[in-house]
Amino acid sequence: MPPPRRHDIRENLLLALDTLRTHKVRAFLTILGVLIGTTTVISVASIFRGLDQQLVETAEGFGTRTLFIFKFSPGKMGPETREERLRKSLTYEQAMAIKELCPSVETVGVELWRRGPAVTAKYKGVEMVDANFNGATADDFQNINADVADGRIYTNFDDLHRTNVAVIGADVVERLFPGEDPIGKEIQVDGHSFVVVGALAKRKSLLGDNGNDRVVMIPFFTFQTLYPNAKEILVTAMAVPGRLAQAQDEVTAVLRRVRGDKPSAPDSFGIATAQTFISNFRDIMATVVIVTMVISSIGLMVGGIGVMNIMLVSVTERTREIGVRKAIGARRSDITWQFLLEAMTLTGTGGVLGILAGVALTFLIRALGWYSAVPLWSVVVGFVASVSIGLFFGMWPAMKASGLDPIVALRHE
């Protein structure tokens, strides 16, 4: 089938637009499925693009050259294996071995907490029942890029002497000390008293919830003294600039040795970086996006079937017109392209309306305070898919129209 000439394309597009204008309600109902499918593609892509940007900012906010070391792989999804359940927690001594034996590691921090629900923090009768309570060495704040908004970070001296001091997150300040300076005030956390020496700046969060802003951190050895049975330890190690990969290799070698991992056995610990969390999230989101796109394609298919039906009706309604065109010299390809372009114009209009609706939803989502951004590829995919639906489902009606006998068509009433 030869391609249509330029002036034929223009003429057929004008005919298609005139058909849309003449049958507005019918055309809108026909392209509704395409519109919904395209809107879904744009909206889902923009939401996940926004989530991706937010995750990157959140993860990198904890340090692009920091290693997070735990007995499980930090950020791992899925159930634990039997080997993982039997793993022993890391220890403070193992963290210090990293500090002493890894030349590519600049600083090492250690966090200690208990398994269980959040605890209650109190100040002058005001309670916060969802505080995250843990102990940490002073170097841990530097490793996780924790910025101080007020006061100071407790020191190694505070840690070694097991002083009852605390550094609190931004949400703790807002809820326990509204309009009041928290520095120097005494708070109760899980029944223990601590003097607030520092307040952390608010951190970027994913989906608006950030447990790091609800944190109450006290010196590592103070926490260990209060909770001698606490075993859960997270080690943070900041690599020398430009040596993140070397630092990870060195930490792996040291921990395998001090934890007694056999050469044939897997690591009895997990190491992650900001990029690890980002990659894990993207893997999950890729699956979700694919599933969502498959579901949204149902709307496009429904729209395509509607277009095919309406084009078949259009062929019947315009049988005499087709006969006249053939009688004055129109070729089969001319008729075919006339109806194909009409079908593509119909679905393409639905695609454009869907793109506009998707962009409008994106701005609405952004206005509600959530991250969202329309990726260019989603606009291209949405429009190309909508036009392709018209091409595919318009083929049968177009071939049927071009195959009509002109004499029979002219007799049609």
Find the count of extended strands (DSSP E, 2+ residues): 11
The outline comes out as elongated
Assign a percent range to the helix content: 55-70%
Give the amount of beta strand, in percent: 15-25%
Mean pLDDT: 83
The helix/strand order is: HHEHHEEEHEHEHEEEHEHEHHHHHH
Termini, distance in Å? 29 Å
Count the DSSP helices: 15
Question: Which stretches are poorly predicted, pLDDT < 50 over at least 5 residues?
Answer: none
Structurally, the number of domains stands at 2
Rg, Cα atoms, Å = 32 Å
- Strand count, sense and closure of the main sheet? 6 strands, mixed, barrel
| Helix/strand class | alpha+beta
Strand order of the largest sheet: 3-4-9-6-8-7
Protein described:
There is one protein chain. By secondary structure, the chain is α+β, with helices and mostly antiparallel strands. It has two domains: 6-57 and 280-411, no CATH class; 66-272, no CATH class. It has 15 helices and eleven strands. The chain has helices spanning 6-22, 24-60, 82-85, 92-101, 138-143, 156-160, 170-176, 220-226, 244-258, 274-317, 319-327, 332-367, 376-393, 395-402, 406-411, and strands at 66-70, 105-113, 119-123, 126-136, 148-151, 165-168, 186-189, 192-200, 215-219, 232-239, 270-272. Strands 3-4-9-6-8-7 form a six-stranded mixed β-barrel. A hairpin with a 2-residue loop joins strand 3 and strand 4.
Question: Which helices and strands appear, and what pairs or packs with what?
Answer:
Layout lengths: L5 H17 L1 H37 L5 E5 L11 H4 L6 H10 L3 E9 L5 E5 L2 E11 L1 H6 L4 E4 L4 H5 L4 E4 L1 H7 L9 E4 L2 E9 L14 E5 H7 L5 E8 L4 H15 L11 E3 L1 H44 L1 H9 L4 H36 L8 H18 L1 H8 L3 H6 L2
Parallel strand pairs: 4-9, 6-8
Antiparallel strand pairs: 1-10, 1-11, 2-4, 2-10, 3-4, 3-7, 5-8, 6-9, 7-8
Helix pairs in contact: 1-2, 1-12, 2-10, 2-12, 2-13, 4-9, 10-12, 10-13, 10-14, 12-13, 12-14
